[in-house]
Amino acid sequence: MRRTKPVAAPMVARVYLRVSTDAQDLERQEA
């Protein structure tokens, strides 16, 4: 893992969580 600015970490984590939850919601709708 390469480190950028410390402030970017929470934002990246938040976006990643949001994308992953959106993907799960899409899977639920298709199922």
Care to describe what's here?
The radius of gyration is 13 Å and the shape is rod-shaped. It is mainly α and 31 residues long. Helices cover 74% and strands 0% of the residues. The protein has one helix spanning 8-30.
DSSP strand content: under 5%
| Major sheet | none
Q: What is the subunit arrangement here?
A: single chain
Query: SSE string, helix = H, strand = E?
Result: H
Using only C-alpha atoms, the radius of gyration works out to 13 Å
Structural class: mainly alpha
Task: Say how many strands there are.
Answer: 0
Mean pLDDT level: 85
**Low-pLDDT residue intervals, each spanning 5 or more residues:** none
Helix content: over 70%
- The rounded distance between the terminal residues' Cα atoms is 34 Å
> What coarse outline follows from CA principal-axis ratios?
rod-shaped
**What is the count of DSSP helices, taking H or I runs of 4+ residues?**
1
